[in-house]
Design brief:
The protein has a domain of 190 residues. Helix content is 24%, strand content 28%. The chain has a 4-stranded antiparallel sheet with strand order 2-1-9-10, with no helix packed on it. A 4-stranded mixed sheet has the order 5-6-7-8. Helix 5 runs antiparallel to helix 6. The two termini are 35 Å apart.
Length: 303
């Protein structure tokens, strides 16, 4: 199932932002699969429900696999997003800059979730988790195949979640991470979307994994440079960048400056019509931060 992606772009100021209520921070599940998912949002196997579930799984997985014995890596600068005295999850931000051409530079905030000592040298890692929700959709039962046919499981995930795996690999490359860890997380029971078990964790070098999944960094930068170059030629204004859900096309639409801005007060729904939260859920920790600027200056207090 392909999902529509939408960004707002402010041309001339170099500013981009997400629309309010955007689901871009959620993780797609089965986005490139040929097997359709249920359309009703209340179904636990719908695209929206699976995206929320995957976001919780990744948030918790990135913290649960860390060694918590007090041996934390501290950097010179404190966490720029945490309140004083607040304990935040272990995530590092690195601010890095790339030169697109003689007149354009791109600055991106990249993430790493942990550090590891390898041959007495500190290595940075990214942590992500693939999740199995019902073997009948993928056709591969992880509990039976992971130990003996892990390559077949990964190949199936590449077919069903190509965009997500490419995104994670690109994030690891941009962050200059030394390793990327992929967890295989499955529901305890296909109809229970609250309780999960980690079946395995595999490690890869980002460049090697990119080659394995046919992700070409030169093509990545070519796409970015083309979109940035196109936006810089537009007149100053407000635009929306839309990925066509069924075609390999991206469209840019100009919109009024006050689009998506409401000056009315929305009345709440009656209590009996409001959606009720689930009875239980994953205990997610809030995402946190560490940073690294253009000159690789480390920022934050733990990783």
């Amino acid at each position: 199932m392909l999902m529509r992606k939408m960004y707002e772009i402010m041309v001339a100021t170099g500013h981009t932002k997400k629309r309010d209520g955007s689901q871009l921070d959620l993780l797609s599940v089965h986005e490139t699969s040929q097997e359709p998912l249920p359309e009703a949002n209340e179904d636990i196997n719908s695209a929206h429900s699976l995206s929320v579930e995957a976001a919780y799984i990744n948030q918790n997985f990135s913290q649960q696999v860390l060694v918590r014995d007090g041996n934390k890596v501290n950097f010179d600068e404190p966490n720029p997003f945490a309140s004083e005295g607040e304990e935040v999850a272990s995530v590092a931000y690195r601010y890095r800059r790339w030169k697109l051409d003689n007149e354009m530079y791109l600055v991106a905030r990249c993430e790493v979730q942990s550090v590891l000592d390898v041959n007495k040298q500190r290595s940075c890692l990214t942590l992500n988790a693939l999740n199995e929700f019902d073997p009948k959709y993928s056709g591969v039962d992880w509990r039976q195949k992971l130990e003996t046919q892990r390559g077949a499981v990964l190949a199936t995930e590449l077919k069903n979640n190509a965009n997500k795996l490419a995104k994670w690999t690109a994030q690891a490359l941009l962050a200059s991470a030394d390793f990327m860890k992929l967890g295989y997380v499955s529901r305890i029971h296909p109809r229970d979307h609250f309780n999960h078990v980690v079946l395995a964790v595999a490690g890869y070098k980002p460049k090697d994994f990119a080659a394995q999944i046919n992700l070409n960094p030169n093509n990545m930068w070519g796409i970015v440079k083309s979109i940035v170059g196109l936006c810089m030629k537009l007149e100053e204004g407000k635009y929306v960048l839309v990925k066509d859900p069924s075609k390999p096309q991206v469209r840019i639409y100009q919109i009024p400056a006050d689009a998506f801005e409401n000056d009315y007060v929305e009345e709440p729904l009656p209590e009996e019509e409001q959606a009720q939260p689930p009875a239980e859920g994953a205990d997610g920790e809030e995402a946190a931060t560490i940073s690294n600027d253009v000159t690789d200056k480390q920022i934050d207090n733990q990783a």
